[in-house]
Specification:
Shape: globular
Protein name: Two-component system OmpR family response regulator
Strand order of the largest sheet: 2-1-3-4-5
Order of helices and strands: EHEHEHEHEHHEEEEHHHEE
Structural class: alpha/beta
Number of helices: 9
Low-confidence stretches: 124-130
Keywords: DNA-binding, Phosphoprotein, Transcription, Transcription regulation, Two-component regulatory system
Strand content: 15-25%
Organism: Novosphingobium capsulatum
Radius of gyration: 18 Å
Largest sheet: 5 strands, parallel
Length: 231
């Protein structure tokens, strides 16, 4: 696997924390632990992690508060697997829309947690993702994790950045939901949440802040980013 994945486990239950830490280390990952939300944010400010396993119910800051603080700090932040006893569809959607890359309900199998971590970290930046992308006057800047158009700039979180990058690379072509799940989220299966639709809606809102709306929904097919609407 090359360099070992370095993970942060944010969990206040000592039994669950020990189980996850032991499982990660047995699988060849290195892992640190934080028992509170504030401790997690402090560790994230001092060290670089490849992924975070984040419990939703913490004794000080809630997990979604921690997640919001992470995403507000910029997109040079790691992907996050939200871990929670709150496992309803509404809870999962709330966690994903707050900026989580995936959501796993308790109780869980360690094998599934590892598989989900692999999925959300699989698409690391490669040579084709280092250079800036441009479609017309719409420019995606990897150094700032931002989109710019006509002098306006919008910061994007990790998933919105990857989503827009994929759409821009396939401008004027239909991109299906399954293609986005595979290439942006790393899923080889379709989750039961509306993760693509909710993130696409958020992306279009950010682009509207720039004064453009170049992404069209093709009912029953997918989405198209129209280069002519970026001119």
């Amino acid at each position: 696997m090359g360099v070992a994945m370095h993970c942060l486990v944010v969990e206040d239950d000592p039994v669950i924390a020990a189980h996850v830490l032991d499982g990660l280390r047995a699988a060849g990952r290195s892992a640190d632990h934080a028992a509170t939300g504030r401790a997690a944010l402090e560790r994230l400010s001092r060290a670089r992690y490849d992924a975070v396993v984040l419990d939703r119910m913490l004794p000080d800051l809630g997990g979604l508060e921690v997640l919001s603080a992470m995403r507000a700090a910029g997109d040079a932040r790691p992907p996050v697997l939200v871990l929670s006893a709150l496992g309803s569809l509404a809870d999962r959607i709330e966690g994903l829309e707050a900026g989580g890359d995936d959501y796993l309900a308790k109780p869980f199998a360690m094998e599934e947690l590892l598989a989900r971590l692999n999925a959300i970290t699989r698409r690391r930046p490669g040579p084709a993702e280092v250079a800036s992308l441009a479609v017309g006057r719409l420019v995606l800047d990897p150094s700032r994790h931002s989109a710019a158009f006509a002098g306006q700039q919008a910061l994007l979180n990790r998933k919105l950045y990857s989503l827009l990058a994929h759409m821009m690379r396939h401008a004027d072509k239909v991109v299906t939901r399954d293609m986005l799940l595979e290439h942006v989220w790393g899923y080889a299966f379709a989750p039961t949440t509306n993760i693509v639709e909710s993130n696409m809606s958020r992306l279009r809102t950010r682009l509207l802040d720039l004064g453009i709306d170049p992404i069209e929904t093709q009912r029953g097919h997918g989405y198209v980013l129209r280069s002519g609407l970026c001119a």
